[in-house]
Write a structure and sequence with these properties.
about 90 residues, mainly alpha, rod-shaped
Length: about 90
């Protein structure tokens, strides 16, 4: 009986000792919300930075494509004029 009581007291003592530690490690709802908000802000910042980098990469390509398109239109006009002149 004394052994059983000692075991119960030992377990109860361990539980009582670890409860404050567990409580200190458990974040509050506000802390979880703040952490989630910060994570979302970081993700948003990273997304915006990536979008800017992609835009900076695509802008010169778009400029090249516009130039090619302009050259093609000029060539088409030359062919049209050459064709029209032959008729």
């Amino acid at each position: 009986m004394i052994k059983k009581f000692t075991r119960i007291m030992l377990v109860l003592g361990l539980v009582l000792v670890t409860l404050p530690v567990l409580a200190a490690q458990t974040p509050s709802v506000g802390e979880v919300k703040d952490t989630a908000d910060q994570a979302l802000q970081n993700a948003s910042d990273a997304t915006n930075q990536t979008a800017q980098e992609i835009q900076q990469t695509l802008d010169p390509i778009q400029s090249i494509l516009n130039t090619i398109n302009s050259i093609i239109q000029q060539i088409q006009q030359i062919f049209y004029l050459l064709n029209f002149g032959q008729q």
